[in-house]
Amino acid sequence: MAFSLVKSIWESGVLRFRNKATRTPVATIGTLRLHEYLTVTNVDAQDNTLTAAQIAGGIVVHTSEVGGGTVTLDTGVNIIAAFPGLAIGDSVKCYYINDGTEVLTLAVGVGTAILDVAQTITANEAAVLVILMDSATTVTVYTIGA
Amino acid sequence: MAMSLVKSIWESGVLRFRNKGTLTPIITLGTLRLHEYLVVTDVDSRNAAPTAAQFLGGIITHNSQTGAGTLTVPTGALLDAAVQGLAIGETVKCYYLNRGDQTVTVTAAAGITIADTGQTVATTEAAILIFLKTAADTFVCYHIGA
Fold first, then answer.
1. Which of A26, A80, B1, B134 has a CA 20 to 30 Å removed from the CA of A137?
2. CA atoms of B74 and B53, how far apart (whole Å)
3. Is there a contact between A93 and A53 (Cβ–Cβ < 8 Å)?
4. Number of domains, chain B
């Protein structure tokens, strides 16, 4: 029998999808646009480990400092585990904003690949990280826009 | 009587929308975020002219080489035919990553105009291409982020 981890509910006239256990919103079909629920993580450091939880939140604002920094991806297993029901070929997005003064470079974790390792996120730039599930334990990150 | 070309189904506790004919996933309402199903097309050549289906796969990676290249979009008629049910005013998008060593210019085709023809995608840059349907077989391509 099918079970559900998300629920839909009409709220204020729009159709909102929520996590059934935590009731945290996921997305809403609004009257004009799709509304995506995001949680911001602030990082003030030279480097950052981009955890699965940060990716799940959807926005990271990194105030890079001191010198060129590294953003190291969590493991593929951890990232996939953070998104129940994620299937091969599915992707999730994370917006990564560098509001600091240094250049940031993405670095792989176990079970992750980066399509273009030469691409950086310079000061006052931002990127959309599209994280695509390749297998049960691996993902590839496509960096868009920096 | 209303007809449907897509179906929704509960799978692993999340709500997945699939193409009713092919059963290919489209989008999933996960417990934390939306999951978007993407198919990657890789091109290894100076110029690229992916098909409408490849653009609709959602990710094109381009190993640009030899000299400055072009990314030619499909015709508006081909794109319109490939997206069933797309209404005027609606959009579809594609992630484009230039992983090669040459600058690429996005080039129009019959029925598709490029909003900013001066914008290029330099080496190790990437962009989001948003195709807005303005009439039958007619689109404007907005080029974001490179």
1. A26
2. 9
3. no
4. 2
- CB-based contact B31 A119, cutoff 8 Å: no
**Given CB atoms, is B12 within the 8 Å cutoff of chain A?**
yes
pTM score, two decimals? 0.93
pLDDT in tens, B32-77: 999 999 999 999 999 999 999 999 999 999 999 999 999 999 999 9
Per-residue pLDDT of A30-51, as tens digits, reads: 988 899 999 999 999 999 999 9
Tell me the residue range of the domain where B12 lies: 1-37
**Residue A24 touches partner B, C-beta closer than 8 Å:** yes
* Residues B104 and B63 occupy one common structural domain: yes
- Does A143 sit within 8 Å of B126, measured CB to CB? yes
In this structure, are B67 and B12 located in the same domain?
A: no
ipTM of the complex: 0.88
Query: Could you tell me how far CA B15 lies from the centroid of its own chain?
Result: 23
Backbone angles phi, psi at B81, to 5 degrees: -65, -30
| Residue whose token pair is 């081909």 | B78
Q: How many interface pairs between A and B have CB atoms less than 8 angstroms apart? A: 136
With beta carbons under 8 A apart, name residues in chain A contacting B10.
2-4
Tell me the C-alpha distance between A36 and A132, whole Å. Answer: 18
Task: Tell me: do B112 and B76 sit in the same domain.
Answer: yes
* Domain match, B25 and B47 both: no
CA distance B77 to B94: 17
Cα first-last separation, chain B: 45
Q: What is the DSSP string of B39-83?
A: EEEEE-SSSB---HHHHHHEEEEE---SS-EEEEPPPHHHHHHHS
Residues A144 and B127: beta-carbon distance below 8 Å: yes
Chain A residue with CA closest to B96: the answer is: A144
Chain A residues inside the 8 Å CB shell of B38: 89-91, 130, 132
